C-alpha cells in the first residue's frame, strides 16, 4: 500500500447528490452563475450594465485576456506554469508591428505568432528536456525577452504602428460582433475540441496527473509538453498582436497586467493549479468574470485600492467554495 | 490476571463502500510476540493503521490495560507507548538518519534540538541493530531500501514503546540483519514489550511468534498458539476455502516458434553485465534470484527506459537501437511492460477505469488523432469481461478498486494493445490468491496464443508452477538457467545464493 | 567515520549555497576591481543597502519554498509595510519605536493570514498568495495613494549608514537576522518540521510532525521578514510608495534568488543563507554590468541571460541520469 493511499481519503462515490451540491461541484457553472449575479448586482446601481453594447465591449476586452488564459490553461493542465506570458505578449506585438513595417502588412500577424511559437519552443525545451522547474525557467525567459525588447526598441516606445489588419481584427466588428470576440470564440472552440475530443488532449490530462505513468504507457511526454508551451506562446503573442491593434501600436510592458489575472481566471474556472483537472469552459467563465468585475468596479468609480482588495478577496472566497485540495489524512 | 496490553473490540472501518474492517477484535499481551496473518485485503493494514492512530475507526473500542483510549492521531498513539514500523516507511528523504530517527521526539537543550545528543543516541540505536556503519548525518534519500528499513525500525525503538508494531518490516533485509532483529525482538519481549507483526513469510512467523491471529474479510477468524496449526490449515483459514494453488499445465513454445526477443551481451554498468538470453514466442520465461540483482533493470532495459545500454537487442529478428516505451508499444514491436509499482507507474489513480485502460491504445480506438468514444467504451467493456474485473462503473476512479482488480486494469491496458511480448515486473505482489490464479491462467493462455512472456517474480512457487524456463540472476548476470524438470525450490534457492545445487559456490558465469 | 567523511558530507549537503557564495565572491571582487572610482566605504554601503533589501525578501520567500509552497505576496507585503512605515515611523523616538513595532506586526499579520488560509482553507499557496497579494497591495494604495510620507531621518541614517565607520549597518542587520533568527529557528522542532513537510508530507504526518503549525509559521515568518524589508525600503527611500511594478519585481526576484541559492522549489532542502547569497548574486549582476560599461541598453538582456544560465545549472544533473524514470519526480 503506497504512502499516499495510507492516509488520503478516497473520493466519495455512489450516493446521489442534491442538485445544489452537484452545482457547487461544477466550477464552470458556479463561475457562470457568479457572472450573472455580478451583472444583476451591478444593474441595480447602473442600468447600463445589462446593455448589449456594454456586454459586447466587455467581451472584446475579455478576448485579450481569454487568449492568454487559454494558452496558460494548457500549460497548467500539464502541471507547469508559464511566467513568460507578459513579455511574450509584448514581444509578439512588437515583432508583428516591426514585421508589418519592414516586410509588408501581410507579414505582421504571422511574424508575431512565430515569435510566440519560438518562445514557447525554448520554454518547452527547458522544461521537458533540461527538466528545469517551469516556474523558474519561464521566469528567466521572461527576463531575457524583456532584455531583447529593450535592446530592440532602444528603450523607447516602438515606432512601428500596428498594421491595418491588426487594427481591424482588434477593433472592427461584423454584424455588431467584435472581430476580437470572433477570434477568441474560434480559438476557444479549437482548444475545447482539442482538449476533450482528441488523443493529444487526453494525454495532456494524463501527463498532468502523472508524467511517470504516462511515460511508461508510451505517451511521448516531452513532445506534448513542448507542444503545450508552444501553444501558450503563440496564444500569448496573438493576444499581444490584438492588443497592439486595439491601442494602435505596441508599448513597453504592455503584457504585464495580464499574467496574474490570467492565472486567476484559469484557477477560478476550476482548473487545478497542480495540473490534471479542469474544464476549458471554466476558464472562459473565469475570464468573463474577472473582466466584468474589473470593469464594473472601474465604472462604479471604485478607487484602485478598493478594486484590488475586492478582486483578491472575491477570488479567495470563490476558491474556498470549490477549490480545496484533498485533506492529507 | 492482568489486563491485556491492548484490546480491540468490534472495530469497523469503511472506505467508500468497501468494508476494510468488520467488527474486528484483537488481544495483545505484554511480553508476547503476536503475528497477524491474512491475505491482502483481509484488513491487516487497516487494523495496524487503527492501532497506530493513522486512521479512526467508524465503530468499536480500543483498550489499553483495561482502560479505554482514543488514538486519534499518530502522536496520541505514541503517547500511549505504541510505536509502529510502517511498511511504506515514515522517513523524510531530505533529512538525515539521526533527524529521522528522532523526528517525533528529538533530544532538546534550551528549547532547541540537541544535534550532538541526537547523533550519539542515533548511533547507539543503529549499533544495536548492527548497522553502526551508517553515518547518522547521511541523508536518508541517499540510502538503499534495506538500510532505510533498519532506520525505520530504529526510529520505532527510539520511543521505547510498550507495544511495537511491525508491518512487513523485513522485506528488503539481509538474513544477517533479520537474525539480529529476531534477537532484538526476543530481548524486548523478555523486558515486557508487546510485539505485533504482520508478515507474509511463514518461516518468519514460525521463528518469532508466540501467538498467531488470522484475519479474513475484515474480521479475526482464529487465534492460536504458534505451532498448533499446520501450514495448510493456516492457508485454509486465510482463504476460507480449500484452494490448492493450481497452475495451468505448461505448454512451452512450439518447436518452430520464432525467437521473439534475442539479447546478446547486454550491459548497463554496474547493474547489468553481459546478459544474453532468448525468449521464444509462446514461452513463459521466469526471472528469479534475490531482490536487487538486476531483474528490474533488465526489464526496464528491454522496454527502452534506460540510457547507455550496451549490447544487442533483437525483436523478432530486427536489431533495434532506438528502444523507448512509445516505440515498444507500437505494432511493429509490440512490447508491453507491466511495471513494478502499479499505483504510481501502472495506473493514474485519480482517473477513471476507462481512461486508464485505454491509455496505451488510444490512437487506434479513434481516427486521425480524435478519440473514439464508442470504440473505447466497447473495448473497455470487453476487457472487463474477459479479465473478470470487478468494477462498479467504468467511470469510477481506478483508485476505488482493490489491489487485484487494479492490477487487472494494468494488464488489460496492455492487452488492448495486443502485445507480442509481455514483460512483467512482479505482477502478483500484494494480490489475493483468487486473482493470482486468474492471472496465471491468463498468462498461459496468452503464451498459447503466441505471446512471449518474461516474468520476474519474487515468489519462487510461481516460477516453479508457471515458467517453462527460469533464469536466475545474480549480481547483474544470468547465473543459471533452469529448464523443465530442473526447476525446483532447491535449485532456485541455491542458484539465487550463487551456490551450485551440490552445495559449492558456483564460479561466476 | 573519518573527519574527512564528515567534511565531504557537509560539502555535498551545502553544495548549492557554496556555489552561490563562490560566484558572488568572484563577482563582487570583479566589481570592486573594476569600479571607476576607487573602492570606498560609501560605494560598498550603497551596494550593501540595495543587496540586503533583496536578501531579506529572499529570506522571506525561503521558508514557504522549503515547505514546498510559494509566497507570491512577499513583494506586496513589503510595499504595504513600506507605506505603513511612511505613515507611522516618524516623530519622537518613542513614536518611531512604536511605529517600527506596528510595521513589523503588520507584516507578521499579513503572513499569518496567508498561513491561515493555506492551512485551514486547504488551498494551494501559489493561488492564495496571489489573491492576498492583491488585497495587501490594495491596502498599500489606501495608505499611500501617491508617493510621499515621512520617515524618521534619524533611524534612516542609523540603519543605512555604517557601524564603526566601516561596516554597513545593513550587513550587520542581516547578520543579526541570520544568527539570532534563522540559526535558532532551524534547530527548533517546528523549524525542522518545515523541512519534513516539504520533503514528504505523508512521512511527516505518520511521524507526528506538526505540519500545520509548521506551514503557518513559514508564512508568518515570511510576512514578518517582508515587513522588515518594507521598513528598510522606507528608510532607504525616506518615503513610501505603492508601486505595483516594484512589488512584482521583488517577488519574482526573491524566487530567483532562492533558486540560485540552492533551495529546491520542490521543498525539503535549502536555507536562508543560500537565499541571501542568491540575492547578492542577482544584485551584483546589474552592478557588474554597469562597472564593465556594458551599454545600458544591453544590461537588461545580460541580466536575463545570466539569470537563465544560473537556473540552468540544475540541468546538469539531467545529463547524468541513466534511468529515464528518475527524470520524473
Please indicate the count of domains of chain C.
Answer: 1
**Average of per-residue pLDDT values of chain A:** 88
Helix content of chain C: over 70%
Contiguous helical run count of chain A: 15
In spatial order, strands of the major sheet of chain A run: 1-2
Distance between the termini of chain C: 32 Å
Cα-atom radius of gyration of chain C: 20 Å
Helix content of chain A: over 70%
Spatial strand arrangement across the major sheet of chain C: 1-2
Shape of chain C: globular
Could you state the order of secondary-structure elements of chain A as H and E?
A: HHHHHHHHEEHHHHHHH
Discrete helix count of chain C:
15
Give me the count of strands of chain C: 2
Most extensive chain contact? Answer: A-C, 61 and 61 residues
Strand content of chain A: under 5%
Q: Kindly state the number of beta strands of chain A.
A: 2
Beta fraction of chain C: under 5%
What are its keywords?
heterotrimer, A: 329 residues, mainly alpha, two-stranded antiparallel sheet, 15 helices, 2 strands, C: 329 residues, ABC transporter involved in vitamin B12 uptake, BtuC, two-stranded antiparallel ribbon, 75% helix, 1% strand
Question: Secondary-structure blueprint of this entry?
Answer:
The complex is a heterotrimer of chains A (about 325), B (about 500) and C (about 325).
Chain A: H1 3-7, H2 19-24, H3 27-45, H4 52-77, H5 85-103, H6 108-128, H7 134-153, H8 164-171, E1 173-174, E2 177-178, H9 179-197, H10 199-209, H11 211-216, H12 221-247, H13 259-268, H14 280-299, H15 304-322
Antiparallel strand pairs in A: 1-2
Helix pairs in contact in A: 3-14, 4-9, 4-12, 4-13, 4-14, 5-6, 5-7, 5-12, 6-7, 6-12, 8-12, 9-10, 10-12, 13-14, 14-15
Chain B: E1 6-15, E2 18-28, E3 33-38, H1 44-51, E4 59-64, E5 67-69, H2 74-79, E6 82-85, H3 97-101, E7 108-109, E8 112-113, H4 115-128, H5 145-157, E9 163-167, H6 175-190, E10 194-198, H7 202-208, E11 211-216, E12 219-225, H8 231-239, E13 259-268, E14 272-280, E15 284-288, H9 295-303, E16 310-315, E17 318-319, H10 325-328, E18 335-338, H11 342-346, H12 353-357, H13 362-365, H14 373-386, H15 403-416, E19 421-425, H16 433-448, E20 452-456, H17 460-466, E21 469-474, E22 477-483, H18 489-496
Parallel strand pairs in B: 3-10, 3-11, 6-9, 9-10, 15-20, 15-21, 18-19, 19-20
Antiparallel strand pairs in B: 1-2, 1-4, 4-5, 7-8, 11-12, 13-14, 13-16, 16-17, 21-22
Helix pairs in contact in B: 14-15
Chain C: H1 3-13, H2 15-34, H3 41-66, H4 74-88, H5 93-121, H6 125-143, H7 153-160, E1 162-163, E2 167-168, H8 169-186, H9 189-199, H10 201-206, H11 211-237, H12 244-260, H13 272-291, H14 299-312, H15 316-320
Antiparallel strand pairs in C: 1-2
Helix pairs in contact in C: 2-13, 3-8, 3-9, 3-11, 3-12, 3-13, 4-5, 4-6, 4-11, 4-12, 5-6, 5-11, 7-11, 9-11, 12-13, 13-14
